[in-house]
Structure formats: structure tokens, C-alpha cells
Amino acid sequence: MKIKSALGQKTLRGSIVLCINTLTFALFFLRDIFASRFFGLSSRMDAVYLGIMVPSLAANFLFQPLSDLLIPKYQARLVQNKNILHLYLNVLIYVAVASFGITLSFYFFRDFLSSLLASGFSSENRLQVAQYIVRSLPIIFFGGLTISTNIFLNSIGQYIFTSSAALFVPIVSIGFVRFFGGGSGEISFINGMITGQILNFLSVVIFLVFKSRNHYSYKNFKLIKINHSQIFQYGSQNLVNLCFYGFNAISASFGTHFNEGTASLIILTNKLISFFTNLFNNTFSSVLMPYFSRLFLGDKDRFHRENKTFLYLLTLFGIIAIAAIYLSSGLISHIFFSSSKITADQAANFVRFLRIGVFQIPFLITMVICFKWLTIYSEFKVLSIFSVLALVLDFSLNLLLKNHYGMLSILIAPYMALLCTMITALIIMLKKDIGIKKSDVIILSSIWTLMTGLLLGLIA
Fold it and tell me: Which CA distances in Å does 172 have to 144, 181, 200, 268, 292?
């Protein structure tokens, strides 16, 4: 009965967090649409998006995995009535040192990062990308501190506040473009992002101090040494995150080999697709991951049933999302780009990209579920293999399909990579007896095969 009651409370709070996260991620996407409308999609805007992408991906890639790693540890300490604030302070110190070191490294390797990500640009445009990378570097430091603090607050049930505080970033960014964009140009977009990130961090820290002052003590604090198993788990989780964020980086990089503005269009398309997966991933990690971690320890059969229910429901949701976005892609493009500095050809390409890219949604959502499942089972080696496999396939398919499909190959490649990776993942999970049955593999593989046939038919 306690588990059922807990699930009911988590569902209610999860619904509130889902609504707030929906608004937050929608504003993040609209922020980029607003900037694109305001400045247009030129080579300069391509450079801005690529410059911002480097520190943004670095912060998420390096520090988001801490959520799945730390929440079970926070939960265990809460059950044992231990002071979890000491663990948070340890995490904060290590993250602060690591993020500062990474920021410094990125500063010295800015030209290399620019050449890697903007390989199709001229030397002048690559120099612009390097300059924008340097301007955006504070995102790594404040992003890491914010993520670490959010994980602590989520562990004590304050996910509604952490979700709300994230609204600072897109709102401030939009405000900076609106009021300073005319004078400062594209730099105002970057300044707005950094200012919003700082305000986000300050808000969660102030809230943490207020919330913990009567419950947890700072006394007897000691710095905990990190052991090898924790480093391995963290590294495995990083590879999983690299899979999610690496797709976007690879797509943007290949976009620089085509017409001016293509990289920006690819980034905007991927952000709209990621809206659904990030929304679910964020809500799952902050609300449902603590519940499922406890359920796994107490009732594995129920854990498997509820996870498979999520898997099938979200697959259905993904298929509905494909139909809805595909049919409304022309209207979406018109709403976003009409009466703006974006050309008719660029708007038409956005429609083409969106109609192909949207087929990734069911795979990305399924990947979130399966990877979380494997995390709870501590199958970190399997996670690492899947992540590397997906990225290698994506990069290789981009190279192979580039000459045949042109710009469309940038979105076809990750789809095919996800298809191969997820079928392999289900088979491995079946063999390891991790909650997947043969019937599940057959049903999901059949659905994905039909989707692939439909996609290839639409492209032809």
C-alpha cells in the first residue's frame, strides 16, 4: 500500500513537473526560433549556434549523468537518516574543480574544437566559432554547479522548484535579444544565456540554504575520496550522455558542409525533436527514477511490469507524435518563420528536415527507458557499448549517405543508427534476462520495421 501511495504522489508531482518542464523546454526552443527570426540564418548565426553548442553539450554531457548516479545514493542516505548535505558539498566541490579545469582546457583548445565542429566552414568562419566558444565558456562552470544543486533538491522532493528555476535561462535570453540585439547583435544571445544560467544557479542555491538550514548540518564535513568503481560508473553514464548529445554535434558538423544556414536549420530541427525526449528524460530522472530505484529493491516483478507499460505507452506516444508533427510541419514552419529574415528556401528545408527527423522520436524515448533500466541493473559495460555503437554508426552512415541523399543524410543517418542500436539493445537485454521477453523484441522490432519502410517510402 505504501508503494501505491508513493506512486500516486509521484504521479501528481510528476504531472506538475511535466507541465513546468513542458513550458521550460518550449521556451528554450522558442528562444532559438526568436533569435533566428531576429538575426536570420546566416553563416554568422551558424557560428553562434555552433559556438554555444560546445559548452552547452559539455555541461550536459559531463554533469547530467550525476543524476542517475547520485539520486540512489541520496535516497539510501535518507533511508538511513544520514546527513545528505555532506555528500552534496563533496559533489559541489568536485564539480566546481572539474568544470573550472574543463573551461580552462576548452579555452586553450578552442581552435581545435572549432575545426572539429565546423569542418565545412571557411577559416574565417571557424575563427568566429572559436570566438563564440570562448564567450560561452561560463555555461560549463555555472551549468555544472546548477545541475549538481538540482540533483540534491530533487532527491529531497523539491523538483517543482528546480524545474521552475530553469525558466530563468530562456526568458532572460529572449529578453536580451529583444532589448539588446539591435545594438550588440548576436552576442546579446550568448550574454542572455550566461546571465540566465547565473540567475538559475543563484536561485537554487539560495533555496537550498533556506530549505536545509533546519534539517541538515554543515558540521563535521569531510572530503570523500572517489573510488575506482564510482569513476567507472560515472564514465559509463558519460558515454550514454555522449550518445544523446553526440548525435546533435555530428549532425551540426555535417551541416557545415552544405549551404549557409543549413547547420542552424539542423540544430533547430534537432532541438524540436529533442523537446520530447528531453522533456521525458528530465521528468523521469527527477521524479520517477527515485521511485523506480526503490521499487527495484523491493519488488522486481512490479518494477518490470511498470517499466514495460511505460515502454509501450511511450512507443505509442512517439508514433502519434510522428503523425502530428509530420502533418503539421508546413504550418509549424509558417508560424515560426513567416515575416522574418529567414528565406523561403530555408523554411522549405526546415519542413523537409522535420518530416524526416521526427521519425527518431520513438527510438530516442525507447532508448531513455532502456538505458535507465540498464542503469538500475548496473549494466554499465553494456551501456558503454551501446553508446559507442550508436555514435560510430551515426558518423559512418553520414559519410556513406552524404553523396546519395545530400542534406537529408544528416537526419537519415541517426535514424538508422538508432534503429540498429535499439534492436541490438533489446536482444542483449533479452539474453541477460533484464525484464525483456522474446515477444517484446518481436513486437517492437515489427513496429520499427514498419516505420522504416514508411520513412524510406516518403524519401523516395
Answer: 19, 13, 10, 19, 35
